[in-house]
Amino acid sequence: MDPGPLGKDYLAIVNPAAGGGRSRKLLGPALDRLRAGGLEVKVAVTHAPGQATEIAREAYERGVRNFIAVGGDGTSYEVVNGLYPEALEGERPSLAFLPLGTGNSFLRDFSDRGVDHAIESLLAQRTRACDVMRLRHRTGIIHYINLLSMGFSADVATLRARRFSAWGELGYVTSIFLTLARFNRRPFPVRVEGEEGFDSRRCLFLTFNNSKFTGGTMMIAPKAEINDGLVEYVRWGPIGRLGLIRNLPGLYDGTHIQHPLAERNAVRRVEFNLDAPIDVMVDGEVLTLHCEELDVLPAALNVVA
Prior knowledge:
Blueprint: E1 9-14, H1 22-36, E2 40-45, H2 51-62, E3 66-70, H3 73-83, E4 94-98, H4 114-124, E5 127-137, E6 140-144, E7 147-151, H5 152-163, H6 169-182, E8 186-187, E9 190-192, E10 202-203, E11 205-209, E12 213-214, E13 218-219, E14 231-236, H7 241-253, E15 262-267, E16 269-272, E17 278-282, E18 285-289, E19 291-304
Parallel strand pairs: 1-2, 1-3, 3-4, 4-19
Antiparallel strand pairs: 5-6, 5-19, 7-11, 7-17, 8-10, 9-16, 11-14, 12-13, 14-15, 16-19, 17-18
Helix pairs in contact: 2-3, 5-6
């Protein structure tokens, strides 16, 4: 794949609803800083879920190679899925971020300074090679750059998205407590590279990571690297409610992987043997998928970070 030059021309794909409308309010000053620094930035605004994917796909077909995802994790997820698989046959695209929504967990691997760091990276033309994760499911393929999770973390995200999305931070906290009350620890049969059989043990959650953070500040995969050509697999076994509550701080500093019930591995391929579709969280988006296989597209994307 030809990496291609970064260039000064960008298409900013904007989700104006991100962060409860915060994205729309902060966009103007951010664009002024980029244009004052010599970048040419065109803007495309989305009006419905999934539209960022369509915009990115059509733009790549027209020859656009440099993109800015303006919003949260969900916006960059949609843009990535507009670029792949088409970009595998052409020039490697570049993706920058303006995290003007509720947050961008992926960008936190590089800095906790959010928008300021993102703008500085764009002006400095600072790029890094990044792997793209490819998930095949029963009805198609999706791509992501942050993480796929199933179990407790996905249950919290699903509940919040379906019942408490308008509640802001309170909706997130409420979803955590309700999920704790139900506390459904269950098996997700999975076989990672190098193992002979499927692991069908009950667990609290499984995550399949390209980067370290999720939920803004939760370091779910402290050993993940975005360009090592591997999926960072983290499993937490059937810990009890009190054990989880006691160990919650470890999810924010990465020490949870030292728990006796925790496991991690770095692999190139994962297979699933699920009986039916399940709720998963992918880069902040809640989906219901019958997962079948996960692998890595090494260094398939340039990220500006």
